Amino acid sequence: MERAALTRRGLLIGIGAAGGAGAMYAAMGALGLAPSEQDKAFTPPRQGDFTLRGKGSAKVVILGAGVAGLTAAYELGKAGYDCTVLEAREKAGGRNLTLRGGDRLPELNGPVQQAAFGEGQYFNAGPGRIAPWMLTLDYCRELGVPVEVFVNHNAMAYVHTGGRTMRVRAARADLYGYVAELLAKATDRGALDRAVSAQDRERLLDFLRRFGDLGPKMDYAGSARRGFATYPGLAEGTLDAPLSLTDVLAAGTGRLVLNDFGHDMATPMFQPVGGMDAIVVKLTEAVGADRIRTGAKVTGITTLADGVEVVWDGGSIKADYCVAALPPHVMAKIPHNLGAQVTAALKTPVPVAAGKIGLEYDRRWWETEDRIYGGVSETDLDITHIWYPSHGYHSGRGVLVGYYNTERDAELYGVLSPEDRRRRALTQGKKIHGEKYRQGVLADVSIAWHRQPHIEGAWVRWPAFDSSFTLLQRPAGRVYFAGDWLTQLIAWQAGAMESARAAVTQLHQRAVRSA
Amino acid sequence: MERAALTRRGLLIGIGAAGGAGAMYAAMGALGLAPSEQDKAFTPPRQGDFTLRGKGSAKVVILGAGVAGLTAAYELGKAGYDCTVLEAREKAGGRNLTLRGGDRLPELNGPVQQAAFGEGQYFNAGPGRIAPWMLTLDYCRELGVPVEVFVNHNAMAYVHTGGRTMRVRAARADLYGYVAELLAKATDRGALDRAVSAQDRERLLDFLRRFGDLGPKMDYAGSARRGFATYPGLAEGTLDAPLSLTDVLAAGTGRLVLNDFGHDMATPMFQPVGGMDAIVVKLTEAVGADRIRTGAKVTGITTLADGVEVVWDGGSIKADYCVAALPPHVMAKIPHNLGAQVTAALKTPVPVAAGKIGLEYDRRWWETEDRIYGGVSETDLDITHIWYPSHGYHSGRGVLVGYYNTERDAELYGVLSPEDRRRRALTQGKKIHGEKYRQGVLADVSIAWHRQPHIEGAWVRWPAFDSSFTLLQRPAGRVYFAGDWLTQLIAWQAGAMESARAAVTQLHQRAVRSA
Question: Most Cβ neighbours (<10 Å): which of A140, A154, B415, B477?
């Protein structure tokens, strides 16, 4: 979720993009957060780690069957812990939500939508992509969830700014071309003689020529890299003229062509085959579906000297430990005896709004007509992005993500009826793709994460990673907290998994000591 | 094939990369090659186009069951032409060659290799990737060949130059960072005041800050975009320091991180599921396997007033027309009566050497240890590239392409025995991946395309697209030529397909006129 990436780096640590890496190193040290390799090492609890007391198993109640809760139950289960997962929603998975034909989607203060997608079609309403370095991919391997490439960057996709639509590849070629040309000129004029040695200058010019596809006079006059008006075949292709420097800078195009530059957004990315919830399905299987009680809303949490008691709307449960894997703002509303500091800390992170719409079309015109196979078009419209499906290429139908927006844009769409969301999304998308964008729509479902029952936010933003953050990384009595919101991978499933592992490690060490 | 891309743009039209786009426009006009939309339009021959004479079908003999020959037979078959395809090799496909366990690979003046890959493993010895704008993808759709993403660019892959190995993402981040910083400095110093307006300057600086991930003083001091020494989890990740400008320029790294900039190499690219030869299989099915005679070496071609006669080593065949879809240097050696000019033209393009090795490993260490899922590592070693498989992620085994080299490097490997090729490839790859690169190799097969019987070259290079090129785009008597070598898409299957369509169109127009 690239907005999340900006949020994390920009707003959360209050430094980020604007501050540069140097500032980040410093801040990390100041907060005592500089991680070590040790943080990444994880040894799953094993049956043989200790002889569990009593009936041979400590009992753990886990609040929330999202990715953090399920991962905790899965890892604890490896050592034979007796886990019960309480989930307030109708099904497990939390924000890992894939919608298919027949699925119901209720909304706070809104109508219940019924997805009417065709057979085999799906819409990842929550997370949609996995970076190769993320723990999520390790769990896919361990659980046997097959993965395929999620096309995040597509040179053939569009960038739409200031009313102008152009291919990403053309925008990049022009920007790179002018940057290379300008720097070559400045170098030639000796403007950088103090900064760059004579030897480096020659090498730099060689790089700039290649980087910008410059002509013999180190000028940029367009490039095949922009793509062609007519692609080569029997004869050479025909090229469109490049935009002027002024035009390519004017529309803010440059901001929208860097989507794959971040460490979490770089090519390639991955997705489970058949829908993101394949991870939920496999985790549920491994945990045991009978251990997960859905439709169970927790109403009270009491930590005791010898255990923990959790009350839910259908009964109560006593356990040795609790893992609270709920969103912090939801958890904060549940009566508990963990102290005012914990409540204050839980209330610190701010929920962020985000929304998505899935639009099923009767034909894959983006492939046959626009030659866009997967990827994302970036816009300065309130839809922000259009995602093209990275699966089912050349099949009959397909589901686009017609918007994926956050904050103010998401709130704007969130207050609309599902019909009005669709209408608005189609009107905006038409500006990029023309009239065909409004034709042949078979079904649609839209989600406003900040209006989802028992979730109430797409993710959270910490005003600062201060003592509230570190407080909740440790247990309160016998209650351990877990969730992406307790990591530096907010809005990523990998964060939920890392956090679950940390909670499991702490809980298990204590259980072994007291066994 | 990126070397091919450079060849086409650099050497073939004699202008290319060094000349820039401006020069290319001019050259296109001068050669009369500027294509029109009309060139791209293709109407397949249909049964109803005319009532074919005699038994209702004109007879066509097609020389070569490579992609051009098969495409011609397929398109002609749509109108009921009676096609016979003569193929000198043991099986159809030509350079579209996928090797699996049990396959034999003979070589001119070399031993026969036997591929010993495990069940389900394969190695695309020829073409491996398809750009989304290419005709190849349309044929995949039309023929029902499922496609998946071929990861061509991978930020996690390595660039190895001057003895230094670094992640592609780190090399790019450093190069972009310094380019942005230097241009920002030059702009600040007023070096570009004549070239850039005041308004553009502010916008340019904004872009440069984002493009280079610069700090508040517009300096580059490293970036999360480089990737992390320890990736973020519970705590922020730890960053390695960036290379110095001198270091990042010194090794020529910049030349090797632009692999996806070209119009034919941009992300995303595609491959047929299960092996490139799925295209051959489906074309063969559509043409009818009984129409393709393999092991049939053509020894004479005679164009006559009323037809064409082709002699092969097992007999002769008379037909109304012939489509010669052989490599030009192979065709040139076959006795014919098409005239000295045709022979001279066929001898004009120069065959290019290229080689590949497929290495099957017992585990996918590149995924589990290096976090490289598909993609290409670029090197300045004689192996040039290492390709990681874009399929079978997380499965037990996998086949790497241990080298894909051309010209001198390919000739160097070509003269070695298969064992020595493997040994050398493993020694080179170890420089990047360490000792594990030489461990767990289960099987290997290497191909030297310039030593392949009846092919004798990976592709060709035209010294110039002169009258020889245009001569062969027209029929000689009743013989039509086809192949990627007759297009501006040399070394791409799309070229073979475009050329086949052009030959079919010309042949069909003539057949309709004379019907």
Answer: A154
Closest CA to A211 of A186, A180, A239, A253: A180
Best A169, A249, A253, A499 member to test B by mutation, with max B CBs in 10 Å, is A249
Residues B335-388 have pLDDT tens digits of 999 999 999 999 999 999 999 999 999 999 999 999 999 999 999 999 999 999
In a domain, B328, yes or no: yes
Strand partners, A63: A86, A324
Q: Tokens 């599902």 appear where?
A: A418
> Rg of chain B over CA atoms, in angstroms?
25
CB contact under 8 A, B255 and A207: yes
* Residue of B182, B192, B236 lying closest to A196 (CB–CB): B182
pLDDT of residue B38 exceeding 50: no
User: Which residues, at least 6 apart from B140, have a Cβ–Cβ distance to it below 8 Å?
Assistant: A394, B130, B146, B147, B270, B272, B279
Q: Is the residue at A268 inside a domain? A: no
* ipTM of model: 0.92
- Name the H helices within A32-167: 37-40, 67-77, 135-143
Quick check: A30 pLDDT over 90? no
> What is the H or E stretch that residue A330 is in?
helix A328-331
Give one DSSP letter per residue of B230-260, joined into a string: B--SSS--BPPPPPPHHHHHHTTGGGGS-TT
Residues spanned by the domain of A219: 168-258
Backbone angles phi, psi at A20, to 5 degrees: 75, 175
Residues B510, B323: Cα–Cα separation, whole Å: 14
Please, which pLDDT band fits residue A254 given cuts at 50, 70 and 90? confident
8 Å CB contact between B45 and B78: yes
Q: Do B155 and A262 count as a contact with CB atoms less than 8 A apart?
A: no
Does residue A425 share a domain with residue A370?
yes
Report how far residue A297's alpha carbon sits from residue A302's, in angstroms, rounded to the nearest whole number.
Answer: 15
CATH number for the domain spanning B110: value is 3.90.660.10
Q: What is the pLDDT of residue A33?
A: 35
Q: How many angstroms separate the CA atoms of A296 and A129, rounded?
A: 29
Task: Give the integer Cα–Cα distance in Å for A259 and A150.
Answer: 14
CA distance B377 to chain A (A): 14
From B209's Cα to the closest Cα of chain A, the distance in A is 8
Distance separating alpha carbons of residues B413 and B253, to the nearest angstrom: 24
